[in-house]
Design brief:
Layout (H helix, E strand, L loop, with lengths): L1 H4 L5 H15 L1 H50 L5 H26 L30 H14 L1
Length: 152
């Protein structure tokens, strides 16, 4: 295996062999390689320290998040499970019914001045009144003319 790796017919073997010879014979290459290795090791150690700091910070944040979640759960009284959730839904439904009753009471007289229409209308009974055409209104026409004049 080593013969195949360090043989001159293999490009990887040629590169490794030439690098070994250069490092063995050249003191400048050894000094440069030593500097690169020291800087690389320092960078690896610094990266390890940063990762350690990040993981400890995440651990602290996760702990505080869990404490907040526990406090919120106790505040909401959800510790007994589905029973309290069911009560919450029932309270919500009761509130919706109360609000809809209040809205119905507030708006039940809003259409008193309108004549009641029969429940089952047939198309051939009485013709429906013509709707009011807003474009025939003089104030709307004036406003539209002003806008048109500004655009031209």
């Amino acid at each position: 295996m080593l013969k195949k790796l360090f043989s001159f017919s293999n490009p990887v073997g040629l590169v490794i062999t030439s690098a070994t010879l250069i490092l063995a014979l050249s003191p400048e290459a050894r000094r440069g390689t030593k500097k690169i290795l020291v800087k690389g090791a320092g960078a690896a150690l610094m990266l390890g320290d940063q990762m350690k700091g990040l993981t400890s910070g995440m651990r602290l944040q996760l702990g505080s998040f869990m404490e907040e979640a526990k406090a919120e759960r106790e505040h909401m009284h959800l510790s007994d499970g589905t029973h309290s959730i069911k009560e919450g839904f029932e309270q919500g439904i009761d509130k919706v019914k109360e609000v809809s009753r209040k809205a119905e009471d507030a708006f039940k007289n809003i259409f008193d001045d309108v004549t009641p229409q029969p429940e089952h209308r047939h198309y051939q009974e009485s013709p429906s009144p013509t709707p009011y055409n807003v474009l025939n209104d003089e104030a709307v026409q004036n406003t539209l003319n002003e806008i048109e004049n500004k655009l031209h």
